[in-house]
Amino acid sequence: MIIGIDGNEANVEKRVGISEYAYELLVEFSRQKASHIQFYIYLKSNPLPHMPKETENWKYIVFGPQKLWTQFALPLKLFTQKTKPNVFFSPTHYAPRFSLIPTVIAIMDVSYMRFPELFAQKDLYQLQNWTSYSAKQASKIFTISESSKNDIIKYYPVKPENVVVTYPGIKQEIENMKDIPSIDYLQKTYSIPKKYILFVGTIQPRKNIARLIEAYAQIAEKNKDVDLVIVGKKGWLYEPILETPEKFGVAQRVHILNFVSDMDLAGFYTNALCFVLPSLYEGFGLPVLEAMKYGCPVITSNISSLPEAGGDACLYVDPTNTNDIALKMEKLMTDSKLRKSLIAKGKEHIKKFSWENAVKKTLEILESIAK
Questions:
Q1: Residues near 15 by beta carbon (within 8 Å), at least 6 away in sequence
Q2: Please, what's the b/e burial string for 107-118 (b: 16 or more CB within 10 A of its CB; e: otherwise)?
Q3: How many C-alpha atoms does 209 have within 13 Å on its Cβ side?
Q4: Is the dihedral angle over the CA atoms 67, 62, 124, 213 positive or is it negative?
Q5: What's this model's pTM, rounded to 2 decimal places?
Q6: Dihedral angle of Cα 305, 310, 311, 316, to the nearest 10 degrees
Q7: Of 343, 167, 201, which is closest to residue 279 (Cα–Cα)?
Q8: Side-chain half-sphere of 150: how many Cα atoms within 13 Å?
Q9: Rounded Cα–Cα distance for residues 313 and 322 (Å)
Q10: Are 107 and 152 in contact (CB under 8 A)?
Q11: Are strands 274-277 and 298-301 parallel, antiparallel or unpaired?
Q12: Among 126, 261, 264, 319, which residue has the fewest nearby CB atoms (within 10 Å)?
């Protein structure tokens, strides 16, 4: 059996969100020992060094043109290819525009349907229209939470049994935990103080970063030795967010960093007073689990999939209530008993999630619908 996969989301230098999901799935797929399965990974540019190496059962197929690749180049390749996949999997919203091969897609969330005003018009058009045709032609749709499954069923004419939840795992462990950067290294490299509150995620309106900064400003004067560190690449409509620290008088104490390496990110989690993800909507919220893995207590929103992701190991806030966010941050910084409790619960909670389990279920579905 041949499984074709769109590997482009994984084939990027800086992986977050859906790119991380796609990459971790590919890594686990490449480790499969089943001799009856071959994987064809379709790319529009050559595989980067971090991608799994080619083997007898793992083959890269690179072709162009890159522009509108999913719409034209990929369907044409699948149609003209002599040895075709039995099933095609796209770990993104977008299926090949035209294809007779049974296709499975993955939809992380439908935030673009719930909050269209938070998206640039160009991105919104593509998300809404390309996802719509992809959902209609997909044999199955993977998603990463029951919350997202309910939203997909609400917005698209798909049968509930055709939407399959596979909980994601967590980034691969740092091989030697002693290699995790110290606070001294982080201070020197990123010019941050010893004490800080951490946010990790793409800088875009849905992440509710502006309210987080406003909430931090409410407690900044009382906690003069604690800064706010924001780690994440720029997403759509990021410009007003970058202006928020100045607006609330905390520009010198809010450190907005770009993408950092996995090793340095582990250091940020390990040394933070707490991690805060006050998103207005999430398909799952992987950084919640990443923070727990490194013993960092978590504050997150009480809506969408986040209670599903965080279980009883988080302190929850109303993301629309700035005062609530501020009060919970101060509480977690000052209540050592609560901190220890959340850290211990977090260590237990993350044991429920693994990429190995996600891939096992994914492969079962792909094999069941293969031609």
A1: 23
A2: bbbbbbbeeeeb
A3: 30
A4: negative
A5: 0.86
A6: -90
A7: 201
A8: 9
A9: 22
A10: yes
A11: parallel
A12: 261
Structure tokens that stand for 10 in this block: 């994984």
CA 50/CA 259 separation, integer angstroms: 17
* Count, residues in the chain: 371
Q: How far apart are CA 271 and CA 141, in angstroms?
A: 38
SS (HEC) of the chain: CEEEEECCCCCCCCCCCHHHHHHHHHHHHHCCCCCCCEEEEEECCCCCCCCCCCECCEEEEECCCCCCHHHHHHHHHHHHCCCCCCEEEECCCCCCCCCCCCEEEECCCCHHHHCHHHCCHHHHHHHHHHHHHHHHHCCEEEECCHHHHHHHHHHCCCCHHHEEECCCCCCCCCCCHHHCCCHHHHHHHHCCCCEEEEEECCECHHHCHHHHHHHHHHHHCCCCCEEEEEECCECCCCHHHHHHHHHCCCCCCEEEECCCCHHHHHHHHHHCCEEEECCCCCCCCHHHHHHHHCCCCEEEECCCCHHHHHCCCEEEECCCCHHHHHHHHHHHHHCHHHHHHHHHHHHHHHHHCCHHHHHHHHHHHHHHHCC
**Amino acid (1-letter code) at residue 309:** A
Number of Cβ within 10 Å of residue 89's Cβ equals 27
User: Which domains are assigned to the chain?
Assistant: 2-169+354-369 (3.40.50.2000), 177-352 (3.40.50.2000)
Q: Which pair of tokens denotes residue 62?
A: 């690179």
Identify whether the C-beta of residue 143 lies closer than 8 Å to the C-beta of residue 108. Answer: yes
At 148, the pLDDT band (50, 70, 90 cuts) reads very high
Which pLDDT tens digit goes with each residue over 242-293?
999 999 999 999 999 988 988 999 999 999 999 999 999 999 999 999 999 9
Give the list of residues 6+ apart from residue 3 with CB closer than 8 angstroms, or none.
29, 37, 38, 39, 40, 85, 86, 87, 88, 89, 366, 370
Work out the pLDDT band at 178, boundaries 50, 70, 90.
confident
State the amino acid at position 172 in one-letter form. Answer: Q
